Amino acid sequence: MKSLFLRGLATALALLLSAAPVAARSQAPVQVDDAWVRASVPGQSGTGAFMRLTARQPLTLVGIRTPAAGVGEIHEMRLDGDVMRMRAITQMPLPPGQAVELRPGGHHLMLMDLKAPLVSGARVPLTLVLRDAHGAEVRMDLQVPVSLRAPGTASAASAPAPSPGHSHGHSQHRH
Ligand SMILES: [Cu+2]
User: Per DSSP, what are the bridge partners of residue 96?
Assistant: First the structure.
């Protein structure tokens, strides 16, 4: 009797638990838009990855992993005197429902110790390592396209010519 009841309970629990990941998968914890990695040339050791992140729950970005680079870091830009410098930070809060931009000249993801040149048109596997409000780790696997410039700024195929000069004013910051 008792074991039957327990078995029934276990089955019910298993059903509940197996349903949960399906629900989670249908809606990723973070919406990722316009992700791209800047193409690199042979001999170049590092490059940047950029995207717009909108968390659906309180999350903190605490790191990145990619097989394309020996080291992946979260970088911020800081004005040091009158020179913009980048430096690694250990976490970047993602308030729910608020788009957080990772872009050239601002916060960005840094891929260092590149294993091979990243060619425009290729895709780089990149895993976002996040923590939720309870401190539990959440990982999101992305396939990020390699490009010479941000998506939407000028599609290489349809644009008549590359726009002369970038208007960001961060041209001194190179990856
Ligand atoms: Cu950087």
Answer: none
Question: Residue 126: which residues within 8 A CB-CB, separation 6 or more?
Answer: 35, 37, 49, 64, 65, 66, 68, 72, 109, 141, 142, 143, 144
Count of CB atoms within 10 A of residue 175's CB? 19
100 CA → ligand 1 middle, Å: 17
| Ligand 1 center from residue 111 Cα (angstroms) | 8
Q: Tens of pLDDT along 107-153?
A: 999 999 999 999 999 999 999 999 999 999 999 999 999 999 998 87
Please tell me the distance between residue 83's alpha carbon and the centre of ligand 1 in angstroms.
14
pTM of the predicted model, to two decimals?
A: 0.73
Which domains does the chain possess? 29-150 (2.60.40.1890)
Q: What is the 10 CA–ligand 1 centroid distance (Å)?
A: 50
Ligand 1 centroid to Cα of residue 157, in Å, is: 28
**153 CA to centre of ligand 1 in angstroms:** 21
User: For residues 58 and 131, what is the distance between their CA atoms, to the nearest angstrom?
Assistant: 9
